[in-house]
């Protein structure tokens, strides 16, 4: 915990980039860091001593590399698993973008620039992306994670999947994603960092229900 005292995080509740960093801090047993909840989307800001990282993936990699022997190991040793982990981790960032372009379309795009054709195109791109992940999970053994043991790939991808279900993604259309979601949602690092306002109103939204 003493090491965590030199760390601070500015975060937004439910923001996948913030959630990734919080899951990683929990996995590395770095509880007790200073944190402040802010309202903006597009955080986090993570600080360790004099070092500042505003890119969530960079912060997750930094934490794993600085605290390799502490808590859970999040980058596998095996070259095959490590290659898969880095691949899924980076692909997870594309998934974040595609989710944002549907869920936050009206937030990002001024009213006079909105087009039904763009909405349709964004939804189709997201559906194709989710089908890709559904396919990846077909090849994962039951009860397993994206690249073998729980890794940074899961810390980065899980918040996206949780977001998709929060916004109404159909369990029937994406059964493997739903299985992955229920496998991970009770993991201690994820339960400890669950967005507080999601607990207060568990029903969520239905933007993605027909996807």
What would your notes on this structure say?
This is Glutathione S-transferase rho. InterPro entries: Glutathione-S-Trfase_C-like, Glutathione-S-Trfase_C_sf, Glutathione_S-Trfase_N, GST_C, Thioredoxin-like_sf. One of its GO terms (cellular component) is mitochondrion. The structure is a single chain. With 211 residues, this protein is α+β, with helices and mostly antiparallel strands. The protein folds into two domains: 64 residues, Glutaredoxin (3-Layer(aba) Sandwich), CATH 3.40.30; 122 residues, Glutathione S-transferase Yfyf (Class Pi), Chain A, domain 2 (Up-down Bundle). 52% of the residues lie in helices and 8% in strands. It is built from nine helices and four strands, in the order βαβββαααααααα. Helix 3 packs parallel to helix 6 and helix 6 crosses helix 7. The longest helix is centred in the middle third of the chain and has 25 residues. The radius of gyration is 17 Å and the shape is globular. It starts with 6 loop residues before the first strand and ends in an 11-residue tail after the last helix.
């Amino acid at each position: 915990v003493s090491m965590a005292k030199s760390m601070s995080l500015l975060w937004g509740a439910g923001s996948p980039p913030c959630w990734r960093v919080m899951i990683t801090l929990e996995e590395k047993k770095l509880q007790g860091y200073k944190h402040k909840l802010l309202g903006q989307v597009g955080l986090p800001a993570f600080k360790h001593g004099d070092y500042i990282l505003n890119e969530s993936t960079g912060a997750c990699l930094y934490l794993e590399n600085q605290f390799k022997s502490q808590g859970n190991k999040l980058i596998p040793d095996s070259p095959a698993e490590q290659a898969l982990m880095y691949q899924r981790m980076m692909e997870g960032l594309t998934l974040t973008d595609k989710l944002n372009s549907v869920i936050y379309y009206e937030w990002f795009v001024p009213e006079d620039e909105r087009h039904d054709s763009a909405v349709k195109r964004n939804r189709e791109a997201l559906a194709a992306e989710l089908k890709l992940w559904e396919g990846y999970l077909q090849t994962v053994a039951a009860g397993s994670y994206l690249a073998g043991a729980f890794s940074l790939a899961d810390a980065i991808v899980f918040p996206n999947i949780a977001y998709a279900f929060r916004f109404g993604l159909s369990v029937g259309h994406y059964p493997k994603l739903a299985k992955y979601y229920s496998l991970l949602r009770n993991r201690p690092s994820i339960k400890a960092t669950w967005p507080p306002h999601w607990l207060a109103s568990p029903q969520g939204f239905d933007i993605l229900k027909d996807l």
